[in-house]
Design a protein that fits this description.
The complex is a heterodimer. The longest helix of chain A is centred in the middle third of the chain and has 34 residues, at 167-200. Chain A is built from 16 helices and no strands. Helix content of chain A is 69%, strand content 0%. By secondary structure, chain B is an alpha+beta fold. In chain B, strands 2-3-1-4 form a four-stranded antiparallel sheet. Helices cover 46% and strands 13% of the residues of chain B. Classes of the chains: A mainly alpha, B alpha+beta. At the A-B interface, helix 1, helix 6, helix 8 and helix 16 of A face helix 1, strand 2, helix 3 and helix 4 of B.
Chain lengths: 461, 180
Amino acid sequence: MSESSTSTRQQYTPPPPELGPGQTSHTSITEKITSIVLTPHTPYQWFIVVLIGLMLVGLLQVSIAYLLYEGIGIWGLNVPVGWGFAIIHFVWWIGIGHAGTLISAILLLFRQKWRTSINRSAEAMTIFAVMCAGMFPLIHTGRPWLAAYWLFPYPNSMAVWPQFRSPLIWDVFAVSTYFTVSLVFWFLGMVPDLASFRDRAKHRVTRVIYGVLAMGWRGSAVHWERYEMTSLMLAGLATPLVLSVHSVISLDFSVSILPGWHTTIFPPYFVAGAIYAGFAMVLLLLIPIRRLYGLQDFITLRHLENMAKVMLTAGLIVAYGYFMEQFIAWYSASVYEGFMMQNRMFGEYGSFYWALILCNIAIPQFLWSKRVRRNTVWLMFISFVISVGMWLERFVIVITSLHADFMPSSWDMFYPTFWDWATYAGTIGFFLFAFFLFVRGMPVIAAHEIRTLLPFGKKEK
Amino acid sequence: MSETESDTYGLMAEFETPEELLEAAKLAYGKGYRTMDAYSPLPIHGLAAAIGFHRTNLPILTFILALTGAIVGYGMQYWIQVIDFPVNIGGRPLHSGPMFIPVTFELTILFAAVGTFVGLWIRNGLPMPYHPVFNVAGFERASQDRFFLCIESADPLFDAEGTRSFLGGLNPVEVSTVDQ
């Protein structure tokens, strides 16, 4: 059965290549990527961002010091809202970290070659986001030195142990494992590129530093074989890990009995939300960096478009989650569940809920348009809106369920204080500072993976 | 002048493209050389097999470590919650198996991942700050844009002139002697 004309059918056009036209050889790839680091010239914009980051780190230090000195009363916590910004930001940062592992591990398993130019930065983003997240559980008890024995199973003088049936302990293991595995995966990926830096460095000190980090890597084929196998193993391990980490974090809420928290949709809903927020942050970071360092041949519009598509997909899953919450609140016929939903939409925090719907569902629908997906200004705007939206989601989940739960006599409002915001801003500053240090000193793009994108002659797959 | 074999680690041929290196490796293997190595700035599919290296054992290590992690995780929780300091929490069974799964899972992944990573470097013999091949002028391009094949003097078929002319016949950019 043959169709006669092609006038109504579109011609199939293959997707654009993963490597831009300016990169034609191993030499050009190596030179471009090493030139970001092995140069005495640092763009002034880098200094501006690092300065802002450093100032916010100072604010973070003051916030933490004052917290440890005065106690958690400096935050807006009260009864019933005993969990406020600390848990919101913990979940927000961990969620952001998930995109890095998804890009490195899951896209590797799916053999998506377009991940090769963004995976290193995304993994770095994960490391720093998890560091920022980890600060909150560490400081939120107000006296963290007392908390060691109930978080980590070490033999202590009181002979007590953590309570392993609690998701809060599962969090400890999940986040620690996630951080360690991400760190390992990130460093693994950098070793061959650090060897390139070692070999191109002009000054002795630079060469020694990168030489130590590169551990004597010489590119032996046997080593590469084991290296590729290790990357594959780590990717296979990191994939269920990343799905489990945010699921465990969502269980912090689901195993409670609070309306709005006690729901089985949380694990997949949180994981989708994490991917959503994470890709938004990757775009927020990579679009300026690619512009600043001229990396358009590596991080092409195709890459940005693919990331936008993943973001849109995750956003639709999150939207489904919101819809399901509404549906179950009605279908369950539970007066508490129903009230919780009513309160979310029309209570004192109602404006946050509608802002959430706008930021997470309405505005990202523009990503259906190819023109929007390939426009960096639009992508920056939508990514920023999604980051805010995901913050709002965690705010709505935590605060609205806590402030008006079963007993009206327990209801109260939550108002964040200056120190709540200062700590948050401080972690953002730390993140920026650390990330830009990474950009200045480490291989931003996985050169050895990009090299595999160059056409290879008559080789059999 | 021919050097004594103990001074020479081997002979190194430099190529400009990965295809040439792969071809050269296959020809060298076909000629009977077994103790050799190839160096490239990117992993080349089929190259390790071409020089006679098959199947790394790392996945088995990963599996063993994963099993260890699972046993350690579950065992630790069991010992803590059932034997060492049992606490009655809401009448729940002391040995609450399903609740032990998340920590067990995380430790499985942790042991497997970190162990495989450490195992990789140990198997590769890295860090190894000094290696004879770094003595070759131009070898710094092995991590950038050039491809090298080194036939070591430890190979039974190695012969200073014979191997050198064989390598020369593969059309390299250069053939160099690698000093120990």
